[in-house]
Design goal:
The complex is a heterodimer of chains A (1057) and B (149). With 1057 residues, chain A is an alpha+beta fold. Chain A contains 31 helices and 35 strands. Classes of the chains: A alpha+beta (1057), B mainly alpha (149). Chains A and B meet through helix 18 and strand 22 of A and helix 1 of B.
Chain lengths: 1057, 149
């Protein structure tokens, strides 16, 4: 890795100048914190001791030992070099930058205000600007001029009721975290807003904060005029990609959605042309971390209605490849994994389009393969019949398509939602029911042993349930509730509505569980509300003096199952002690000596077969089980999470929970409340169909596989993702293939519904087209799923090797078949533009808590991380693998304020220790936790402003709640944290940690382990990983096969030096 | 009738019984799961057509008896000193013991679709083995009977 020779330096503007350059507008309060006692008007604070840095005010001070990565001198001429030498700046009147100094940056922040401003004013009103709403319908039509007015995409009678219930749901969602919602204004799709907001600013960040530049390509590196943000071959693609976003900036939600669907994205990437990017020497281009998948380039007239929503949105269903190889041989040769990533029941945030509903119960399906009619069928014989797009059978078109049976009026079939949308929901008639839709039923199994009571879990849980009783889905007043508390015996409660106080029924027989009363244990929530409320108020005091350290959770679960198995429902188990008596008793089996060895896998697998067999019984009776595990000590998450895994539930883990800490209580209460309020689907099955010649080979996720293509889910939690591997059996002779996921479920409002997701993908014969259509985020999700499965069946080392091998294979194929560079080693490592983040995501996976080589990660944490890797949808998983780092002390002015897409976030930084200045304050988040890192040399003013603490010494590391202070910096940071907690789907509430640079080592190391581009724990840094990949690719191509790896420790990625 | 012939007659009966069990159940596994796709394709009502849970429960009832019978036969050969027959049975006994000690001998309903191909292969091997055994025992029985008379 060569250090960049100076020649090109003058041509590149240092990125740190930009934020300052924008700071000229006077009235705004200065936002930068910076060492040295510069006079107050100066926008930055500086610790007194440090000499003024030679560069621009925002220039990072790299530690001296990182000279290799040092920022080039910012100015070409030494006369202008020092910031101090610049009189206006030194006076601090305004941090001026003559515009002539940096003419370029056409698409940085200086440009965005022009497009944004007028709109921003409109959107100052909290809910949503009427401007934006007015703008959306034209935006809706814009991408499809040919779209006939008869086939407008808004569903024929997309029932207002569903909108109503959606609105109602949103209202309920808001009831709890109100202060957070206030910070959250209309924000359709966070992923999009990142790009809109930050692509420009973070581009220069990426380009100037470079590690080094490959010496072999000085021409390429020297070439970029200061205006081009990209590197080398990337240049052409970058401005092109940004163009659409720029244009979209003033337009509201709709276009975002469309571009997300890959239709508006069409012009971004010309078809068939593959753009190669060299990876060596460039930090990962994180500004593209939330870019949409490559466009699906369907042949014209693939769908009958040419609707832009004919393909379902990638947030519901996406494929690792947006083009399918025509033969199995080609798929094998390309070495690309083919899989679907499905999140069928995802939540809708405000601004998301609701799923159109077909409510007339006319469900046209193919007679042979049972495919639901979709936008990709064809009408033949004058519209009398339709030809199935999966098996090509001709079927009759139902008469209701052309004639409304109720009003006897002719109907327009082109308006039907199922022919216009790739994602629709049918209201199912009685043929789709085995029994009437079940009422929602919740059985709470609450641990009341000593540790549960002492940690405050019982009290917090009781309080949360009490507060959330209104949020539990109970539209028809049918919801049923039961409570079982358990220590060494089981306590049932009689909630008969005629009682004023609940009656406790004690069962101490735990080996052969029976129900103490035939009725009144599982009661109607509305009828017995007052009894339940009085119970919940008393619960914290009932067991407050307990000394019982035993827990019979297995028996309690059996009892809960007996209660609810008749009608189906949900068991919510709150577990604090390891179940140690009765059925399914477990032993504390964690052995620190096994951690980091091949034997670790045994600890990650279930210890007792009971939880698996019980889960299977639950699945049969449509009972789901959610586990909330509170661990002071070892709590065997691996075994307990078996239950949610096979019953389609969710596992939440709170290590070291102590309700005395408000942060812990708040996190648990928030997530638990969200879990209760979740509008789950019930007694569901998922079936995935595909065109002839395509077969589903295996499934990953939380469900029970009931037959080769049928997944049983007693409950469908929102925002869980499933991954399906696909194989090609026969050659595909059609120009397109379809995948259709059907989720048959009962809503919690007592309606049977079928949600159908259809994705149509083109069939390609050329390797380059396959590679240019790979969706790297879906790919990362697939690799995560596969790696976790591998880790649990064989060992963790194998899982990591499998990931690396897969990436090496892909890079090798790209090198030999697309670049055609033949065998031997080449100085570069090249991949297509749409796969350029895959190495970074791979590294994130290798270093993830769930998979990292380490003997320090407790089994519980690892097991929980694996559960999350397996169940998270792409939107949550990507930041979980590659966390987000923001710099707070020098964030731009607009960051933390309300823009047109909600709160504006600061530019993202690469995850590398070089980015951490000693006087800096940084925020890192991965969707599960938020860390605020405070450098040793931080200015006292920042501590005072942000934490209300006089100096750095006064700060205490660990979980904190940020105080609300009357100063702009604190308010902005609070806004940013609020936004981070709210912007993604899922019930998770990231907890805030304060990490001091010289604080507690464990916490510090934990934080640093997220800086994945650095070398940590003997695992590779990002440049080292690239080097390793390159060597492996060269080795393989030289030997023209994936031969045995050389016995050289050089190839062992974990001992790499 | 001498011990040898008696033993091998017993062996023949046992092998026939095992063979029947294998055919009956392995064909169940193979046929059921091979046809499951087609059968269930037609019904979208998602009733429990062939439920892996029931199937595994049924199959699991016969796993230990089968292993027991085979091990018993092996023990009898050993006691009788029919070394060739014992040697023939030894690999399978070792394999079974290994499975039981690792707790992998039961069919797991949650994993059955992932491990289906392994089960299938195993079934075919056992089928072939029992068939071989059957004829071998038959031959030895006849030899013993002839030698006797």
């Amino acid at each position: 890795m060569a250090q960049q020779p100076p020649p090109f330096q003058p041509q590149r503007p240092p990125m740190q100048i930009d934020p300052n350059g924008n700071r000229s507008p006077g009235p705004r309060p200065p936002m930068g914190y910076r060492p040295t006692g510069t006079p107050p008007p100066n926008p930055a604070f500086r610790p007194a001791g440090t000499p003024p840095p030679p560069g621009s005010p925002m220039r990072p001070q790299f530690p001296p030992n990182q000279q290799g990565f040092q920022q080039p001198p910012p100015r070409p001429s030494s006369g202008q070099n020092g910031y101090t030498g610049n009189p206006p700046n030194a006076a601090g009147v305004r941090p001026s930058f003559s515009p002539g100094m940096r003419p370029p940056m056409p698409h940085d922040r200086s440009a965005s205000p022009q497009t944004v401003r007028p709109h921003q004013q409109g959107s100052q009103l909290p809910p949503q600007s009427p401007v934006a709403q007015a703008a959306s319908p034209p935006a809706n039509l814009a991408p499809t001029p040919s779209y006939s007015s008869a086939s407008l995409p808004d569903g024929p009678q997309s029932p207002t009721s569903s909108h109503m219930s959606q609105a109602e749901h949103q209202r309920r969602k808001r009831m709890y975290p109100q202060q957070i919602t206030q910070a959250y204004l209309d924000q359709p799709s966070p992923a999009q807003s990142y790009d809109q907001q930050y692509q420009a600013p973070s581009n220069p960040a990426a380009s100037s904060g470079q590690y080094f530049v490959p010496g072999s390509q000085p021409g390429q590196q020297g070439a970029p005029a200061p205006s081009t943000p990209g590197y080398g071959q990337q240049q052409p693609s970058q401005p092109g990609q940004q163009q659409p976003y720029q244009a979209q900036a003033p337009v509201a939600n709709m276009t975002n959605q469309f571009s997300n669907m890959g239709f508006a994205g069409g012009p971004q990437q010309p078809t068939g042309q593959i753009q190669s990017v060299s990876l060596m020497g460039v930090p990962p281009q994180i500004q593209d971390l939330y870019s949409p998948p490559p466009a699906i380039n369907l042949p014209p007239n693939a769908s009958i209605t040419s609707s832009p929503t004919a393909n379902s949105d990638p947030s519901y269903q996406r494929s690792t490849m947006n083009a399918i190889p025509a033969t199995e041989a080609l798929l094998k040769k390309s070495r690309l994994p083919l899989a679907l990533v499905i999140a069928p029941y995802r939540t809708l945030k405000e601004g998301d389009e609701p799923v159109p509903v077909v409510s007339d119960t006319v469900i046209a399906r193919c007679r042979r393969c049972r495919t639901y009619i979709n936008p990709f069928v064809t009408f033949v014989e004058g519209g009398q019949r339709w030809k199935c797009n999966m098996c090509f059978l001709l079927n009759e078109v139902p008469s209701a398509f052309d004639r409304d049976a109720i009003t006897s009026q002719p109907a327009d079939r082109w308006k039907r939602a199922e022919l216009n949308h790739g994602c629709v929901e049918f209201v199912a008639p009685t043929e789709y029911m085995v029994r009437p839709p079940q009422p929602p039923a919740y059985v709470f199994v609450i641990d009341v042993s000593y540790s549960a009571v002492q940690s405050g879990m019982v009290a917090t849980a009781a309080r949360t349930i009490l507060d959330s009783l209104d949020r539990i889905p109970n539209e028809e007043n049918r919801t049923k509730v039961a409570f079982i508390t358990v220590d060494s015996s089981l306590h049932f409660y009689n909630f008969n509505s005629s009682l004023t106080e609940p009656q406790m029924l004690l069962v101490s027989e735990i080996d052969d569980v029976f129900l103490p009363a035939p009725t009144d244990l599982l009661v109607n929530l509305t009828e017995s509300r007052h009894v339940i409320e009085s119970f919940l108020e008393k619960l914290p005091d009932m067991f407050k003096d307990t000394t019982n350290i035993k827990n019979a959770a297995g028996s309690a679960l059996q009892a809960a199952f007996k209660l609810v198995s008749v009608c189906g429902g949900k068991i919510i188990c709150l577990q604090s002690t390891l179940p140690n008596v009765g059925t399914g008793a477990l032993k504390p089996r964690e052995d620190v000596k096994l951690l980091g060895t091949a034997k670790e896998t045994t600890l990650l697998n279930a210890a007792s077969p009971f939880y698996k067999t019980f889960a299977v019984d639950c699945s049969r009776s449509q009972v789901a089980c959610d586990m909330l595990i509170f661990g002071g000590q070892y709590s065997d998450v691996a075994t307990l999470s078996c239950l949610p895994r096979y019953t389609a539930g969710q596992t939440y883990f709170y290590p070291g929970f102590n309700a005395a800490r408000t942060e812990d209580a708040l996190k648990f209460a928030h997530e638990f409340s969200e879990l209760l309020a979740e509008q789950v689907g019930m007694e569901a099955v998922i079936r995935i169909r595909a065109s002839k010649g395509i077969r589903m080979t295996s499934y990953h996720g939380n469900f029970f596989v009931r037959s080769t293509d049928l997944l049983a889910l007693p409950n469908v939690p929102r925002d869980q993702s499933y991954c399906v591997e696909i194989g090609i059996e026969d050659d595909l002779k059609t120009p397109t293939v379809c995948f259709q996921t059907a989720l048959l479920h009962s809503t919690c409002h007592g309606e049977r519904r079928i949600r159908v997701l259809t994705t149509c993908l083109p069939v390609k014969n050329v390797m380059a087209e396959l590679y240019s259509s790979v969706d790297q985020f879906a790919m990362a999700t697939f690799l995560a799923n596969k790696a976790v499965e591998r880790a649990l069946t064989t060992k963790l080392d194998d899982a990591r090797d499998a990931i690396v091998n897969k990436v090496v294979d892909m890079l090798g194929v790209y090198k030999t078949h697309i670049l055609g560079s033949g065998s031997g080693s080449t100085p570069q490592l090249t991949i297509s533009d749409n796969l350029k983040l895959l190495p970074a995501l791979t590294l994130g996976l290798l270093k993830h808590d769930g998979l990292r080589q380490s003997s320090q990660i407790p089994t519980d944490l690892r097991s929980n991380a694996m559960n999350l890797l397996k169940t998270m949808p792409v939107q949550l998983l990507i930041p979980y693998i590659y966390p987000t780092l923001y710099s707070l002390h020098n964030m731009p002015n607009e960051a933390g304020e309300v823009g047109e897409n909600g709160v504006v976030l600061p530019p993202r930084l690469n995850l590398s220790g070089e980015k951490l200045e000693p006087h800096g304050c940084y925020l890192l988040e991965n969707g599960q936790n938020i860390y605020i890192w405070v450098g040793r040399g931080v200015v006292p003013q920042l501590c005072l402003d942000l934490f209300d603490v006089k100096s750095y010494e006064g700060l205490r590391g660990g979980k904190i709640t940020l105080p609300n202070l009357e100063n702009p910096f604190n308010q902005k940071v609070n806004m940013i944290i609020g936004k981070i907690r709210e912007m993604r789907r899922g019930n998770y509430y990231p907890q805030l940690y304060l990490v001091k640079e010289d604080g507690e080592p464990a916490l510090r190391l934990w934080f640093l382990s997220h800086l994945i581009e650095d070398r940590t724990d003997n695992v590779l840094s990002y440049p080292q990983l690239l080097q390793l990949l390159k060597d492996r690719v060269s080795f393989n191509s030289t030997h023209n096969r994936r031969g045995p790896e050389p016995e050289n420790s050089f190839f062992n990625i974990y001992l790499f030096h | 009738m001498p011990g040898d012939a008696m033993l091998f007659l017993f062996g023949v009966i046992m092998a026939a019984f095992l063979l029947f069990m294998m055919v009956f159940f392995s064909s169940r596994i193979i046929l059921d799961f091979a046809s499951i796709g087609q059968v269930i394709m037609f019904s979208d009502l998602e009733c429990d057509y062939i439920n892996p849970i029931d199937l595994c429960n049924k199959l699991n009832q016969f796993v230990l008896p089968e292993m027991g019978a085979q091990a018993f036969l092996f023990a009898m050969f050993l006691i009788n000193g029919s070394w060739l027959a014992a040697l023939l049975n030894l690999p399978l006994v070792v394999f079974n013991v290994q499975k039981v000690t690792n707790n992998r001998h039961m069919y797991d309903a949650t994993e059955i679709f992932r491990t289906l191909s392994i089960h299938k292969k195993e079934c075919f091997f056992k089928l072939a083995f029992y068939l071989l055994c059957f004829f071998f025992y038959l031959y030895r029985m006849i030899v013993a009977l002839i030698a006797d008379s």
